[in-house]
Design goal:
145 residues; alpha/beta; globular
Length: 145
């Protein structure tokens, strides 16, 4: 499982020109799944993301977690995180988990964020989405298990 986490001031997600979800200050999280991923890996990644201290404290140090700043999340499925661009001119996506296995794991991961944070904005699995994000920092961290 791989998650690209970007600290944001806000984010809006649209499908076919219609706004689907939005969130405020917190994280934009792009989630990718591969063979062997399971709920235990999702639990690990979600807990790491929620408790990682990459928000500034009163002294300007990256010392506060998402929970401590009452931050929000926008979680978006992204199979291209497991693209292999090493051969040819078209990336190989064979390491991305197939749709039938990835969807339940994505739903489980969203529910874990909702459980820990009291809510989570999300994308539409398998759809072509447009994200409008106001990045903060920028601060970008890669989580993998």
């Amino acid at each position: 499982m791989r998650a690209i986490v970007q600290r944001i001031n806000s984010c809006t997600l649209s499908v076919e020109g219609e706004e689907v979800s939005r969130c405020g200050f917190g994280y934009l999280i792009l989630l990718g799944f591969t063979q062997g991923d399971d709920r235990a890996k999702a639990d690990y990644i979600v807990n790491r993301i929620v408790n990682m201290r990459i928000f500034r404290d009163e002294n300007g140090k990256l010392n506060l977690s998402l929970k401590e700043v009452n931050g929000q999340v926008m979680c978006v499925s992204n199979f291209t995180l497991y693209a292999n661009p090493a051969t040819g001119r078209r990336p190989d996506f064979s390491h991305a988990l197939n749709h039938e296995e990835a969807k339940p794991l994505y739903d489980y991961t969203i529910n874990k964020f909702k459980e820990l944070l009291g809510g989570a904005a999300q994308g539409v699995f398998g759809e072509h989405m447009h994200l409008d994000a106001d990045l903060d920092g920028p601060v970008t961290v890669v989580f993998e298990k």
